[in-house]
């Protein structure tokens, strides 16, 4: 169907000129939590291989197998410095970089816990959009507040919590209140916990939560409307922009 507006529901370009079924199948097959896990593990392994000796100088369990700053900067670490240099792509690449084995495992466990719940309520395409928007928003806030160097998926994790809180508030009723209470409590506890650990970027956490909350309100959830072709295009755009960001980071580090 190539009509500009659906005759029944009013959706714009409902068939996307015949590509909607293909996009639906493509996004529908995507296990985003697994894809993020693979991406984070792959970039972590590469960061260790770029400077193996640095990974063996752990001072505590929190520094176990920690990549060097030079390796992380090469792969796209963000912060006020890279942002001032015009390296916009680090807002995306830094989501998939981690500073130690514990940092990586902690974030991946939360992603495996939260991503399926967000996908169930919002859909697979909108999960990609919310995760990416939240991660970027967290680093925008962090960079604006002058955090010199920062990495990690925790801002995006807080964004998933923000999306669940947004769902609970908008849905209401017994189920909505239960979702709001559970995920709101998790977000509050994790945020407070961050103040008792060194090296935690609470600005990114706050920005990620706000970014996920606003992104969830913008895209809507399945009970309001089901996913459309445009949602899938936006999700594929987010994936494509992330891949481009890594290409730019590697080019900037090794081909200059």
Task: Please characterize this protein's 3D structure.
By secondary structure, the protein is an all-alpha fold. Helices cover 67% and strands 0% of the residues. It has eleven helices and no strands. Helix 1 crosses helix 11, helix 6 runs parallel beside helix 8 and helix 7 crosses helix 11. The longest helix has 26 residues. The protein is globular and about 55 Å long.
Number of DSSP strands? 0
CATH-derived architecture: Up-down Bundle
Helix content: 55-70%
How many structural domains in the coordinates? 1
Annotate the secondary structure layout.
Elements: H1 20-28, H2 32-50, H3 69-75, H4 80-84, H5 90-93, H6 101-122, H7 124-144, H8 154-171, H9 173-194, H10 202-219, H11 229-254
Brief account:
The protein has 256 residues and is mostly helical. The chain has helices at residues 20-28, 32-50, 69-75, 80-84, 90-93, 101-122, 124-144, 154-171, 173-194, 202-219, 229-254. α1 crosses α11 (229-254) and α8 (154-171) runs antiparallel to α9 (173-194).
């Amino acid at each position: 169907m190539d009509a500009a507006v659906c005759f029944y529901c009013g959706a714009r370009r409902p068939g996307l000129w015949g590509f909607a079924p293909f996009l639906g199948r493509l996004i529908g097959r995507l296990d985003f939590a697994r894809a993020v896990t693979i991406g984070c593990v792959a970039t972590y392994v590469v960061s260790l291989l770029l400077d193996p000796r640095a990974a063996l100088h752990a001072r505590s369990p929190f520094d176990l197998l920690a990549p060097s700053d030079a390796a992380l900067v090469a792969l796209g670490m963000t912060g006020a410095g890279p942002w001032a240099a015009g390296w916009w792509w680090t807002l995306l690449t830094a989501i998939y970089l981690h500073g130690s084995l514990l940092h990586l495992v902690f974030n991946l466990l939360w992603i495996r816990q939260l991503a399926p719940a967000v996908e169930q309520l919002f859909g697979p395409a909108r999960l990609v959009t919310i995760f990416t928007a939240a991660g970027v928003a967290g680093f925008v806030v962090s960079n604006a507040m002058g955090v010199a160097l920062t990495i990690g998926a925790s801002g995006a994790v807080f964004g998933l919590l923000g999306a669940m809180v947004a769902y609970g508030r908008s849905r209401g009723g017994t189920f909505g209140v239960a979702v709001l209470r559970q995920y709101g409590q998790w977000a509050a506890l994790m945020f407070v916990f961050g103040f008792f650990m060194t090296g935690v970027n609470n600005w990114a956490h706050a920005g990620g939560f706000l970014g996920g909350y606003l992104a969830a309100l913008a895209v809507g959830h399945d009970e309001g409307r089901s996913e459309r072709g445009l949602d899938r295009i936006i999700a594929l755009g987010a994936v494509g922009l992330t891949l481009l960001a890594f290409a730019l980071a590697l080019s900037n580090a090794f081909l200059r």
